[in-house]
Each structure stands twice: as C-alpha cells, then as structure tokens.
Amino acid sequence: MGRHGQGVHNVAEARYGREEWDRHYAALPGDALAHWTDAHLTSTGIQQALAAHGFWRRQLASAKTPAPQTHYTSPLYRCLETANLTFTDLDLPADRPYAPIVKERLREVLGVHTCDQRSPLPVLRAAFPNFEFEEGMAEEDELWSATHRETNEEIDARMKSLLDDVFGSDGATFISFTTHSGAIGSLLRVLGHREFRLLTGGVVPVLVRAER
C-alpha cells in the first residue's frame, strides 16, 4: 500500500493548522495561494513519488522483491500522478507490466473536503490515457457530498466492499494499492492489522491471507 506524495491540500492544511482546516478551509476550493479541489501533487510530492520509484527499483534489483501483478489506484488526481511517477519505467517482468486500474472505492474519506472531490471522468481520461478506469464509473463525482463527511464505519464498509471485489475477481498474489492516509487506515482496520500511519509518499507492505 502506497500513500500519494504531498498534495497542494497537505501544504494548505499545514499552513492553516488542522483545527482551522477542518473547521473552514477544507470546504473551500482553494485560497489566494492555491487551488485544491481534487488536489494535485506539489513539487515536493513529485519528488516523493520519484523517491518511491527509486525504492522500488532497488527492491526489484537487489532485494528480489516480487513485482506487483496488479496495480490499483484511487481516482483522485494526486494518486494517479503518484502511481505513474512510481511505477513507470521500472524494470518489471514481461508478465507483470505496469497497467494501472482505477477503483472508485479506493478513494479517500468522502465528503465536505474539496480536495477529495473527484475530477470529471473525461478530464482524468485525457490526463491519464494509460489507466484503465473500472466499468461503471460515473462521468461526474456522485459519491462526494458537500454536507456529509464519511464516518469510520462508512469508509470501513466501503473498503470491505472493495476488498471483497478485489479478492473475488483478481487471482493475483502481489497487489499494489496507491491511495490515501484515511483509506489505508480503513483498509488496515478492516484487515485486522495494527494501526500504521504513513507519511506522504510512504509505502507499507501488508501480508493478507484470504480464504474463499
């Protein structure tokens, strides 16, 4: 599981402080300094994703870490950017190419915060033509609400549904998720894993035993 690199919204939250961010600024599309609806990576975030690329390159070459067989990512812009920067041009086995699949349910906590509002699907398809967007994704973001922020119980149910889908349809052993801190926290709760907080651009390996 990999967390996206630093986004414009992460910088804004640090500038205003968590309390003021949650109280007021997170619901805005941006401020005089930046726009953060479906936030993009900052220059620091780009460098963090490139550092993750270097980590994977070393792991594949010297540590013999198995390459992912399937790459899943959140549809939010910062994750699509991070996945491309991390996995493009790695020396991957011929039978394990980088062919990213976008999963709508792999998103960050839904609602209120505009940084977590998805761009229209045509915009994403144009910007990331190498991605496969899962069947059934709506053209516009129908999941995000301006008035309701997803609870832990709600996001956990969403992540369980995602895992049921992945384990029910994907026979791969080694799977990559490029996603968000809240989503990763939820996935770990659903899996019964201990809490693990990732910095932007961080990666954590998780061993899962799945039984049919």
Which sequence of SSEs, written as H and E, runs from N to C? EHHHEHEHEHEH
* Poorly predicted spans: none
What share of the residues lie within helices? 25-40%
Structural class: alpha/beta
Order of adjacent strands in the largest pleated sheet? 1-5-2-3-4
The largest sheet, given as strand count, sense and whether it forms a barrel, is:
5 strands, parallel
Radius of gyration from the alpha-carbon trace, in angstroms: 17 Å
- Into which percentage range does the β-strand content fall? 5-15%
State the total count of DSSP E strands.
5
The average pLDDT value, as a whole number, equals: 96
First-last Cα distance: 22 Å
Count the DSSP helices: 7
The outline comes out as globular
Keywords:
39% helix; single chain; five-stranded parallel β-sheet; alpha/beta; globular; 212 residues
Descriptive report:
- This protein has 212 residues and is α/β, with parallel strands linked by helices.
- It has 7 helices and 5 strands.
- The protein has helices spanning 8-16, 18-23, 43-63, 77-87, 121-127, 152-169, 181-191; strands at 2-3, 70-73, 101-102, 132-133, 175-179.
- Strand 3 (101-102), helix 5 (121-127) and strand 4 form a beta-alpha-beta unit.
- Helix 3 packs parallel to helix 4 and helix 6 crosses helix 7.
- The longest helix has 21 residues, at 43-63.
- The mean pLDDT is 96.
Layout of secondary structure:
Blueprint: E1 2-3, H1 8-16, H2 18-23, H3 43-63, E2 70-73, H4 77-87, E3 101-102, H5 121-127, E4 132-133, H6 152-169, E5 175-179, H7 181-191
Parallel strand pairs: 1-5, 2-3, 2-5, 3-4
